[in-house]
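hey so u asked for the seq, here:
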Amino acid sequence: MEAAKTRLEAEPVGSPRLVLEPLAVWHAEEMAVVLDSPELHRFTGTRPDTPDELRARYERLVAGSPDELVDWLNWALRVRETGALAGTVQATVSHAGSGLVAEVAWVVGVPWQHRGFATEAARAMVSWLADKHVEVIDAHIHPDHSASAGVARGAGLEPTSETHHGERVWRRSTST
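ran it, structure tokens below
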């Protein structure tokens, strides 16, 4: 008989200037303001969500993946100094064969950019994932998004020759 898989759940994660809080539906109102910039959506071709749209999305995320082999982990980034929210990080963890594989992403609101928050948050999340025995961590980054490539590099990911829907796959393998 196969042992039941243990689901991962987002936990509070600290870094020097940020607290990564497990995402909650009540974050939606403040996050709608943080993420309300067309500039954040330049590489995705989407538009900012309204507070109601973001609340509905957060309700789905908080409910968790319906697939028992996939965990959705999402965090809101809170700036220690001010208490304000600055963005989010996320990891979709798949239980693939005998190991764990994560696809990660991040977004920091325009007013909080160019301060190293995205790199600090991504590094904290990647470290947390490695501590949870996630063996492969991938990010898909638009080839023209140099800032996001810098975040990936700062979090210990390296570019691969692989692409996914036109984006470069960056990877960190924690297995030996």
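The chain has a mean pLDDT of 92. Residues 117-131 form the longest helix (15 residues).
lmk if thats what u needed
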